[in-house]
Amino acid sequence: MKDILKQWNPWWSTGSVPEKKRLIPRDAVLSRIVKLLPEREAVVLSGVRRCGKSTLLYQAIDSLLKDGVAAGNILYLNLDEPLPEKNVEVLDEVLNAYLELKNPQGRLYLFFDEIQGIPRWEQWVKKQYDLRGKDLKFILTGSNSSMLSDDLAKLLTGRTLTVNVYPLSFREYLSFRGVVVKEPDMQKRELRHHFARYLTEGGFPESVLGTESDTNVQRLREYFDSILLRDIVASQNVRDSAKLRDLASHAMTNISTLLSYNRISKAIGLNISTLTEYLRFLENAYLIFQAKFFSYSVTETMLVQKPRKIYAIDNGMRNAVSFPFSKDEGRLAENLVFLALRREHGEIYYWKGRGEVDFVIKHRDQTLTAINVSMGAQVPAREKAALEEFGHSFKKVRELVVLTDDVEKEESGIAYRPLWKWALGA
Prior knowledge:
Blueprint: H1 2-8, H2 11-14, H3 19-22, H4 27-36, E1 42-46, H5 53-66, E2 74-78, H6 89-102, E3 108-113, H7 121-132, E4 136-142, H8 150-155, E5 160-164, H9 170-176, H10 188-201, H11 205-209, H12 213-236, H13 241-253, H14 261-268, H15 272-284, E6 288-293, H16 298-301, E7 309-312, H17 315-321, H18 329-345, E8 349-352, E9 356-362, E10 368-374, H19 381-393, E11 397-404, E12 409-411, E13 414-418, H20 419-422
Parallel strand pairs: 1-4, 1-5, 2-3, 3-4, 6-8, 10-11, 11-13
Antiparallel strand pairs: 6-7, 8-9, 9-10, 12-13
């Protein structure tokens, strides 16, 4: 175990994090993590596999070292890698080996990557948290939202602060591509060129940095298969993995559409109960998201007859594993907007009256923003009509927005914004 720990913690001997581990900073999310490091609570980074959580841990370690924290006071271990045992006792073995090796003094920082693979890890974290007080800081990552299940929430109530991590935003994508944004209007042609690629290729970091299109597609397919196998089939003991994969591919293909459980059930051959369970597994693994119908009434929002809309974690992965019948630019644009809004605001809704509003954001002050996405050369009248209907249906409307291919104006209380420019701030 001591040899394993030495391999994973090169800064013990060099005093710094290797450059190949730090890679390109993601300033917005990294600043949120660094801001939480002095706090008492455990920090949990939660998000889909391969979205960059491990790199963010290395960048946070680099920040601590630059702030003067002793290298020996920082422990990192990827618990997804082969270990002598995959049980909770191995965590005691790790901690004891670390303390014997380094005999650290003062506050300790324990970075445990992909900790959800260790059974009963949350009980161990709670025990150490309660025993050692503020002298022990946990920074944890996990690739399945069920790691923060109801039981865990009860066990670690008041002891965790969660940071959700997603594939790259458009601004982060540009940073990875070496593009510096100074004057968007002056850089319009360049930014629209990169946006068109981002729209179809997505934002998984290794894929963005990759140069071979075919290799990137293969990489994204293998991410997809690995998530299905490791985070769902193995952990949930799914018997019919072929049906699960069919459902995942179906969901990825049909992004931005209303879910019809009956139609999917017949197409794939799953009963409604199993279908519902499999969709929950896919959502817990961050492969898909479901947007609920908006209403101030929780009861109405949760009604079964109000179907949900489905979105994918990443446009590039979606294109790699789905079976689209056209370029699907409109669906990809809507999926991109959903991800940007989810990254910024959390829960996102849709609304439907006579017309349909693609996205509704409920702000903390209970005001609402309604957004439609329209990528054609002309904005159809129905987009404006649906937003006006929404504005008349609710009192506390903060903003009505249409995201367009390249139309930018204010008209009749509706803001029209080019999607490529709007995405720079999302």
